[in-house]
Each structure stands twice: as structure tokens, then as C-alpha cells.
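Section 4.2 – Deliverable D4.2 (structural model, holo form)

The reporting period included a commitment to supply a predicted holo structure for the target in complex with iron/sulfur cluster. Inputs used:
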Amino acid sequence: MATILPERPKVGMVSLGCPKNLVDSERILTKLRADGYAMSPDYAGADIVLVNTCGFLDSAKEESLDAIGEAIAENGRVIVTGCMGKEAETIRARFPSVLAVTGAHQYEQVVGAVHEAAPIAPSAYLDLVPERDLKLTPRHYSYLKISEGCNHRCSFCIIPALRGDLVSRRPDAILREAEKLVAAGTRELLVISQDTSAYGLDLRHASYPLKGGGEIRSDMTDLARHLGQLGAWVRLHYVYPYPHVDRVIPLMAEGLVLPYLDIPFQHAAPSVLKAMKRPANEAKVLERIARWRDIAPDIAIRSTFVVGFPGETEADFDYLLQWLEEARLDRVGAFRFEPVEGAAANDLPNHVPEEIKEERYARLMELTARISAEKLDAKVGRILPVIIDEVGGDGATGRSQADAPEIDGQVHLRDAGHLAPGDIVQVEIEDADEHDLFGVPA
Ligand code: SF4
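Output (C-alpha cells):
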């Protein structure tokens, strides 16, 4: 007689916030899959719904609370985790029926809460660890989290309060994870953390032995070099311009790491940077960017800026625009300053009125859109490598080395129906607009 396997409880997941949170969601789901749970793509089929929240901005908190409300209305059996877990009282006051609330990175607790709420009957047939991690990102690119937490105390940010000081993963463990991802089809590794350039500081940059011989040092450059040897694109996010960042630029020139740096500068005016308490706030950034471009001419620099920070004067803002005009960054995102509950910046004097924030935001976006359009226009006629994300009909969309998924631009291809997601192809660029490129496989 055939063995009848017990029904596996099904877990639904709503994941909010940044790519780092998405990595946490993947880990939680991977652990639950390994424990024998099945996944449900909708509320109706789930025995339990996990909501992985973001608490970075007040607007993100509202979005998280809305998501919890929706999950309760649609399913009723809800466990909350993630950054908003710090505010368990607020959540419980609004949603008394929530089954459990756990904080960011409390994998054991959240998995334990699922076991308690939807126990699983032990079965030798089901308790298998899956071959590879369950991924929420498309198969051809993967986020690789190298550390958690942050040693800085930027005055507008509550991440250190939510996530604690820097804790780096061992470089050999990161490399093993990256090898598995590449073996499973990943063509692009997106290195993330709160502060990638600080990687290994807490490990005192110690070296660790590698399985196949040799060793790896726990610092950004050595890690990037090893990752670069796996044959996938390697993209570095959240890098602060410390002096040692100069050492990764030659790896870009060698083709080991993508010529791409995501550096959240946030501002340029010295008095604003000081009030923000930004790390690596040094005056010679423009000169260094010029040097980086001498070594790796195609380097694309992406950054984010805050306009209307408390105390930002018209002169500070003009300084920022002038700086941007000279820096000619490839990709720029901007935010109007928004006080976040618990952030030190809220208590600073001279808050900027909303209409002035709006006006400055519009001026900054206009300038950076023009620079972006000029830089993209200069690529018309070139042949560039492009990674394919989606194929539909006769066309495809992908990204050049200068474009990270979800936050940067795209390359739209014609005559490309024969390609598949994850292919890396040479593309002749035929046209450009403010954000995107258009081309044809070369
Ligand atoms: S570097 Fe600053 S903004 Fe980034 S996580 Fe740390 S404290 Fe927050």
C-alpha cells in the first residue's frame, strides 16, 4: 500500500522594503521549505501569512501596517517580522489578532512562530533540505548579503537602531553561497549590505582558509576579486567613498567586477554633510571620481541625494547642483527630507518648508535628467554587453553593465525574440532617451 503523506501546511509571504529585506524573506522561506512547508502564492491557499515589514520611513511603516491589515482581512492568520517588529506594541494595538511579531533577522524566532502556529507532522519523505535556496528574484540575478547592521550614525537614519552595529559574514561562507548561486544559474551577483566598504572591519579583516586551498581576506577588495573569478557579473552596492575604495577600481579595469559603483552621497555641501553625520565625508571626492574614470573609463556611478535636509540653505543647495554638474553621475535618485520617527535629524533646527523642498527636488531632477540624457546619448553607436531580463514577442529588455535591476534604466532590444532571460549578448546601441537605451543584438 502506498504511503499517504500528510498535507504540508502552506505559507504565504508578503515582502516589503529594500533588497536587503528581500534577502531576509528568501532566507526565511528557504528555511521553511527545508522544514517541509509548502508555499502559497495567494492568501486563500495559505495556512499562515508572513508579512516581512519595512520601517525605514514613516511612509514605509504606513505601507507595512496596510499590508498587515490586508493579510488579516484576507486570511486572518498572520505573523509579522522585519524592521517594524521593533514596534510590536503599535502592531498589536492596531491588529490584536496578529499571531506573533518578531524583529529583523530573527530567523529562528519567525520560523519558530510558524512551527507553533501551523505545526508540521514529521515525515521522512518531506524533511529534505532543498538543493538550493528558494529565490524571489529571477533566476539569473541574485542579491548577496555580505553583512548586517552599520557602525555609522547618520542623523536621518534609524537603521543602526533597528539592526545594530556591523556584523560581517565570513568571506568563505559568502563565497560558497555565491558559488552555489552561479552553479544554479545566476549570471549576476548584486552585493548588498548597509555599508559594503566597511565589510570585514568587525572581523579585523582576518583571512579564512578556502576549501580548494588558499585563503580569502575579509575585506571588500579581496572578496570582490574572488567573486569576480566565478564568471558572473558582480555589482557593488552601498559603497561609501573611503580611501580604500580606490583599490576596487583596478578590478573593474580588469573586468573582474562591473564598472559600477552605487555610492549614496546624499549631499555635497560640507555643512549639510556634517549635520547628516555622513561617513567618509571628505572634500576631494570630485578629484577621486576623475581618477576612477582615468582607470575605468566606463565606470557608472549611481547615487542618491536628500534635498531639504534641516538647515540646508539656498547656497548649500546651489553648491550641490554645481557639484552634480561637475561630477556628472550616471544615475541619480533623490528624496525630499522626511523626518523618520526616532531619527536625530528631527531635532535639528531650521527645517525647510515643504514648498521649498519640492522646488529644489524639481530643480535637481531636471539637472540630473539632462546629464543622464547626455551620458546615454554618448553611448549611441557603441556595442555594449547587455544581460537579458525579459523576452516578449520579437523584442527583449535587458540591462547594460551600468544598470542595476529595478533601480536603473533598461536596454530595449528589437529583433531579439530568440534570446532568453540571463543571456549576456553584445548589443549595438541605436538610440537613447533620458533613462533607457534602445538597440539590436550585434
Ligand atoms: S551609513 Fe548612515 S544611512 Fe547608511 S545605514 Fe549606516 S547610519 Fe544609515
